[in-house]
């Protein structure tokens, strides 16, 4: 009986943690390609933002900066006003949506993927080491990652932050078949997962935990009958 109670408490705690995480909207930087300006057909660096919460986030007036980490030096995020719950969006250095979509997804494209852009002096992402810092309209930092040297030879792999870590240095590189990463349709030299939502806990995980709770509840009732 003690074992059943312990297991039940553990599962309940896990469900509570997942529920707490999903109930709070949170923007994280889930992917960065600082080598793309010099090693891709569209010739612009990019990063991905993911909303890991359960409600949409209005990013009107939000800005980004690199490793200078300064709101006063930050530039506007343009072209996207809202990130839905569980959605991943892309921001490129200047507006290149058509070329980006063609390179990664081919002629079929990906009509559901939002692509915005940023532009301005002093915010280019360095392939040797740099950072991405995201601020809301009031200047409060919402997300931040730093990274070291990126790929210098093909295939060029994006920095993968599918774990949704924040205020850390990310070093994991994208691998085709892992966390939604794939080889770009029209450029075999690029590997990444633009538009994937691997950082968001899967609904199936939540369902499995609930199923586990139900099973242990049945076992408990049988034990006490």
UniProtKB/TrEMBL annotation:
Tell me the keywords, alphabetical order: Membrane, Signal, Transmembrane, Transmembrane helix
Write the signal peptide boundaries: 1-25
InterPro entries noted in UniProt = Ice-binding_C, Lamin_tail_dom, Lamin_tail_dom_sf
LTD domain residues are: 19-149
Q: Which Pfam families does this chain map to?
A: LTD, PEP-CTERM
The record ties this protein, via SUPFAM superfamilies, to:
Lamin A/C globular tail domain (SSF74853)
**Keyword Transmembrane tagged:** yes
Q: Does the keyword Signal apply?
A: yes
TM annotation in the entry? 203-220
Instruction: Tell me the NCBIfam families matching this sequence.
Output: PEP_CTERM
Protein name per the record: LTD domain-containing protein
Give the species: Viridibacterium curvum
